Structures are given as structure tokens and as C-alpha cells.
Amino acid sequence: MYEIFEELLKNNGLTAYKVSQEAKVPQSTLSDWKRGRSIPKVDKLQKLADYFGVSVDYLMGLNKTVAPIETVAGLSPEYINIMVEAKDEGFSPDDIKLALSLLRMARDKK
């Protein structure tokens, strides 16, 4: 996931420090993320996605095309946390998308 962040930095001529300051994401969070100690929590992922104008899906590597932020619109933070945890556990993007489809179907049945 950090590779995507680095790619966004490079493509936009930015530094992690500048993004940290402007997006209000602590530099220690980005450093831990880079070293594989952790990944940003949902609120931080959303701040970074908003900053770059991409979806959280894209930032997490679940969607290879730059998609509008609305990709995750309507999903509660709990659903986004599930995506993050599944990615950490090694689930493929296709498996995660399938699980999200099932969650959306269950939500829409109500």
C-alpha cells in the first residue's frame, strides 16, 4: 500500500513531509506505514485519499484505476476497517471486493 502513496507523491511532485503537514496526518503515522509497522487508520486513509483526490480503494491497492472518491461513499467506517484488515491479512483485492459486494447487498436488504 505504501508504494501507491509513494507513487502519488512522485506523480504530484510532493514529499511525505508536505503531505503530512497539509493533510494533517502525523509524519510518524506515515513512517510506521512505510516500515510496515502499521497502516493508517480509516480516518487517516480518508484524509490521504481526499488530499490526492483518489478513493480509499485506490490508495489501498484494491482498485488499480484512479477512481473518484465516491467509490466508498455510503460505506461506514466499519466497512472500510474490514477492507483494511482483510488487505493486511493477505486477502486478494478480488476477495475483498466480493466481500464488500455481499456487505452492500446485506445493507441494501434492510
TrEMBL record:
CDD domains: HTH_XRE. Gene3D superfamilies: lambda repressor-like DNA-binding domains. Residues 5-59 form the HTH cro/C1-type domain. GO terms for molecular function: DNA binding. PROSITE patterns: HTH_CROC1 (PS50943). This is Helix-turn-helix transcriptional regulator. It comes from Aminipila butyrica.
